[in-house]
Predict the 3D structure of the following.
Amino acid sequence: MTVHLVDGPYFEDLELGLVFAGSPAVTLTSGVAAAHQAIVGNRLVVTLDETLSSAVAGPGGRLVSPAVVWDVSIGQSTPATHTVVANLYYRDLVLHRAPRIGDTLSTVTTVEALRGNRTRTGRDPSGLALLRIVTTDQEGRTVLDYRRCAMIAARTQGPDQAPRGSWDVVAAPTTVSRVPAWDLAPVRARWGRPSFVVGDEYRVSGGDVVSSAPELARLTQNVAKVHHDEQYRGERLVYGGHSIGIALHQVVRALPSLVTVIGWESCDHIGPVHEGDTLRTTITVETVDETDGRLVAGLRARVVSSHASRPDTDVLDWRFDALFG
């Protein structure tokens, strides 16, 4: 009998151009959407009301929350980051399509750049990996395309620190061509059009507790040990998509005519989140663009985590573009 250890990859195992494409494809069912909503919340009206979804986006099934889409995509990328220490940031996430119930997502992850971290007393060895992640649907059409920077555990002290590959990530500007050509009149008729201007700030009163963290990781195929195993690094961290999903839920509470997210400029995880924390979001309007009757706003969501046993901590800084009715 042979015993096989299923582990890795560690930082030393990664090479430029290495491709991870073995994650199971995931069909977006109403059950997946409901379970996700129960954990992070969802108030996007076109994803909750099938009649409204068809009126806005046309027939073909109810739209799925973009938070479900990017969480499944990120989860499918985690065979590359099984030994992740922390996810640092996301860049230039573009939602090319808006999936519906019944669509199936597949993801390919490619290592684009690597850089070892300096050895420090009291810190386990690690390195940074920049990953290009592309998610497609059952017809091979691109759904998501973005980059993720992950800190990966290393086996030995002093991994190769020389940067390899290109670390330059230039965010693609939001253009009208990337905005879905939907009929927004039904949303506008019921919820109106926001009257915000650049610089307006919204603070959602009341937070949302973080619960069912490993359940969300399992639902979205996220296999990173740090989200499941407390013995791996001495504590279990919450999957970053959990914080982003709660932030979106709170943004839509503040701005109920928000129809969908069409892309991220950036998303930085600036502090750890643990199960039982309470998250609160402050939203700032950074840009407003109205072309051909379609209103797109650049929003910044800053999230603070609170817990009785710890001081309040900044945990998320997320800039994204949203389409409004």
